[in-house]
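ok trying again, last paste got cut off:
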Amino acid sequence: MQEFLLVIYRDLTSANPAPSPEQMKEALRPYQEWIAGIAAQDRLVAPPKRWDVDGRVIKHEKAKDHVYNGPYAEGKESIGGLFLIKAKDYDEAVEIAKGCPIIKYGAIVEVRMAITAA
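nice, full thing came through this time. structure:
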């Protein structure tokens, strides 16, 4: 089994409005059940963590380190959560990620495979 990082984020532009409080409440139970299902299959390596919408970006420019507010220069996307799962390959990890019930509310799930040092 390989380890995969699932990163859940949202596009924060006005074209993608935030879910309403009712939609968030409606999505919470299916999301918790989805995570519980992954854990029940012994595929959850590290449980989900929530992240704030702010952040800091450090870039080395013009021979100096610069710190910028926000996760991205344009501030279009914000990480909402991330966690590690186990799957046999990318296809299986993607199938697990596709089950994320908050996708229908505009969330995006990115899948990354951990690379083991040689």
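cool. Residues 2-113 form a domain with the Alpha-Beta Plaits fold (CATH 3.30.70.1060). The first strand starts at residue 2 and ends at 11.
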